[in-house]
């Protein structure tokens, strides 16, 4: 059995969980995203996910990933200028051409690192209107067709308004409605438990309800987005079991901000009975 899988036997049942490091949040202590590939490997990770590596060429990113010998699970769509708070243009009027350009560039990066999932960020808006929802859906339909050609799954993620004010998509029900209407296996839900708790709570029920539409899962403690075992609102030892029992057996992204040293903070994995 691969070492990235841990088997916990309880009452004759075997549960598995696979964790990947989020390079945009972990191993950030003065390190570039290229350097974080090797740090993730050194910490024991077999796989990573990341935001779009702005400022680095496709060749540089591929070389860093291959040198570290890790698998890349997911990459975020090119967002724009993060210093200006730009988080994508998928729902922004008159930006369709930019969206398509960013999508094509991100697909090229995804193919270079072998990522089979692409997070399509919606963008921020002062006042969302019906027109924005129409633009968002049309762009997602276009993305579904383009991603189908490459066998890459696009995921959309509701993000809470406390962490990212004015982010366009912050409603899980509306996200699922879109996924149902588009009706493509190449547009799925990114279920970040951190955002789910902020937006809706009632985690056990909502995880089970949303799981049929989920393409990727991420975790972090609430409200401060630190390690799952840090002080906060979520009992992750229980929630990880709920996720598994709801039928999810793919990678779980660790999209949290370590309280201190990233590697030392990974002790929760062993304490919860898992391993990398």
TrEMBL record:
GO molecular function: hydroxypyruvate isomerase activity
Coiled coil regions, renumbered to chain: none
Domain Xylose isomerase-like TIM barrel positions: 38-271
Active-site residue list: 157, 255
GO biological process assignments: glyoxylate metabolic process
Keyword Coiled coil in record: no
Domain of life of the native organism: Eukaryota
UniProt KW Translocase keyword: no
Function: Catalyzes the reversible isomerization between hydroxypyruvate and 2-hydroxy-3-oxopropanoate (also termed tartronate semialdehyde).
Family, similarity comment: Belongs to the hyi family.
PANTHER family: HYDROXYPYRUVATE ISOMERASE-RELATED, ISOMERASE
The protein's name: Putative hydroxypyruvate isomerase
């Amino acid at each position: 059995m691969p070492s990235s899988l841990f088997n916990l036997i309880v009452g004759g049942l075997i549960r598995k969980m696979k964790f990947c490091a989020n390079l945009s949040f972990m191993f950030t202590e003065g390190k570039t995203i290229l350097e974080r590939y090797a740090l993730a490997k050194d910490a024991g990770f077999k796989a990573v996910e990341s935001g779009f590596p702005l400022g680095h060429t496709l060749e540089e990113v591929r070389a860093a990933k291959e040198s570290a010998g890790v698998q890349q699970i997911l990459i975020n769509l090119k967002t724009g200028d993060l210093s200006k708070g730009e988080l994508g243009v998928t729902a922004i009027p008159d930006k369709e051409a930019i969206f398509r350009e960013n999508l094509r560039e991100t697909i090229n990066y995804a193919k270079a690192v072998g990522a089979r999932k692409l997070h399509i960020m919606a963008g921020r808006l002062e006042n969302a209107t019906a027109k924005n929802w129409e633009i968002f859906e049309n762009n997602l339909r276009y993305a579904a067709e383009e991603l189908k050609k490459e066998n890459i799954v696009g995921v959309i993620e509701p993000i809470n308004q406390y962490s990212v004010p004015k982010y366009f998509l912050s409603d899980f029900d509306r996200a699922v409605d879109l996924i149902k209407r588009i009706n493509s296996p190449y547009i799925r839900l990114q279920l970040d438990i951190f955002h789910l708790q902020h937006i809706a709570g009632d985690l056990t029920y909502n995880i089970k309800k949303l799981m049929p539409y989920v393409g990727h899962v991420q975790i972090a403690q609430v409200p401060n987005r630190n390690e799952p075992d840090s002080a906060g609102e979520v009992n992750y030892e229980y929630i990880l079991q709920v996720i598994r029992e709801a039928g999810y057996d793919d990678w779980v992204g660790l999209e949290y901000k370590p309280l201190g040293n990233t590697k030392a903070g990974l002790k929760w994995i062993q304490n919860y009975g898992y391993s990398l």
